[in-house]
Structures are given as C-alpha cells and as structure tokens.
Amino acid sequence: MTKEEMVARISAEAKISKRQATDALASFFSNVATNLKKGKKVSFVGFGTFSISKRKARIGRNPQTGAKINIPASKVPHFRAGKALREAVKK
Q1: What is the pTM of this model?
Q2: Which end of the chain is less packed: N or C, by CB atoms within 10 Å?
Q3: What domains appear along the chain, each with residue ranges and CATH number?
C-alpha cells in the first residue's frame, strides 16, 4: 500500500477530505519521528511499538574491493509488532 492509497482509505473511512487525511498522516509520521529522535518509544496497544536501536561501531568489508572499512556507531528506528497485529496477520 502506498501513501496515496492510505490517504484515500483514511479519507473514505473517516469521511474527511483527502487534504485532511494527508495532513493527519503527515502529522502522525512527524510525531513518531520527533519522539524517536528524542529517544522516546512510541507505543500503540495492539498495533506495535516504534523505538530506537543502537548499533555499535564495527569493521565491515567493501564487497567490490574486499578492503576493510570502519562503520561508525549509529541509531536506527525499530518496529516491534503488537500481539493483535501479529494475530491479525496470521489469519
């Protein structure tokens, strides 16, 4: 499903304009990103939890040359599906 398809679905189900649905979805994405950037978790009971995972610095390999390269430590977003979502997907 694309963002456009999601906006159309939200618009139809909530009986709001596509503009309002676009604004609501953009606000959702913005708030999740802002809270993750602050190091907070974002949880939706039954749906899942967005959090930040920390990766340690490590040594990698350039696949073309085989040369070793240093990969710096980083923070990456992580999503863990909730029980209700996992069960809905199973069916």
Answers
A1: 0.78
A2: C
A3: 3-90 (4.10.520.10)
